[in-house]
């Protein structure tokens, strides 16, 4: 009997073998540390989901959405919330953005890798700040 992890690994392997044109184009730019020296993996199981592209060091997941995702907005939102609750930052692009605005997509990914964009769930004001009396 296959475990949940083994099932996801099999699905991820199948997704890699059947990549979309947008996924192949983006992977061409992300693989081998080509973007800012960051290592990406693709179609990788993360919890109960499979991330399209994942930079473990930056805890960044890049998701590509095709036309079917317009009908899956609620499910994608729940999935994103779960990944963010696990500490990942998730950014999404439409397939056509990757195909027609590749440089802009890469620049946005790099901004997120380097922390130049606001976190989607910032701490409430005053939390996370060091106080003079704290060690």
Structure write-up:
This protein is an alpha+beta fold and 135 residues long. The chain has a domain at 20-113: 3-Layer(aba) Sandwich (Endonuclease, Chain A). It has 5 helices and 4 strands; from the N terminus they run H-H-E-E-E-H-E-H-H. The protein has helices at 4-17, 21-30, 73-85, 95-100, 102-113; strands spanning 41-46, 49-55, 60-65, 89-94. A 4-stranded mixed beta sheet has the order 1-2-3-4, sandwiched between helices. The longest helix has 14 residues, at 4-17. The protein is globular, with a radius of gyration of 17 Å. It starts with a helix and ends in a 22-residue tail after the last helix. Mean pLDDT is 82; it is low at 128-135.
Largest β sheet strand count, sense and barrel closure: 4 strands, mixed
Tell me, what is the CATH class of the domain at 20-113?
Answer: Alpha Beta
Give unreliable regions as ranges. Answer: 128-135
Structural class: alpha+beta
CATH superfamily of the domain at 20-113: VSR Endonuclease
Helix content, binned percent: 40-55%
Distance between the termini: 51 Å
Q: Which second-level CATH architecture of the domain at 20-113 applies? A: 3-Layer(aba) Sandwich
Quote the CATH topology of the domain at 20-113: Endonuclease, Chain A
As a percent range, the share of strand residues is: 15-25%
The Rg value, from CA coordinates, equals 17 Å
Shape: globular
What is the total tally of β strands?
Answer: 4
Count of helical stretches: 5
Give the spatial strand order of the biggest sheet.
Answer: 1-2-3-4
Mean pLDDT: 82
Which sequence of SSEs, written as H and E, runs from N to C? Answer: HHEEEHEHH
């Amino acid at each position: 009997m296959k475990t949940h992890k083994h099932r996801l690994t099999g699905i991820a392997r199948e997704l890699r073998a059947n990549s979309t044109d947008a996924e192949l184009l983006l992977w061409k730019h992300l693989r081998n540390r080509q973007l800012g020296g960051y290592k990406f993996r693709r179609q990788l199981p993360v919890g109960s989901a499979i991330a399209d592209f994942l930079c473990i060091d930056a805890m960044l997941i890049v998701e590509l959405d095709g036309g079917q995702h317009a009908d899956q907005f609620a499910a994608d939102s729940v999935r994103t919330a779960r990944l963010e609750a696990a500490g990942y930052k998730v950014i999404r692009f439409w397939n056509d953005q990757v195909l027609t605005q590749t440089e802009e997509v890469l620049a946005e990914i790099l901004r997120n890798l380097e922390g130049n964009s606001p976190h989607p769930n910032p701490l409430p004001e005053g939390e996370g700040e060091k106080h003079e009396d704290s060690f």
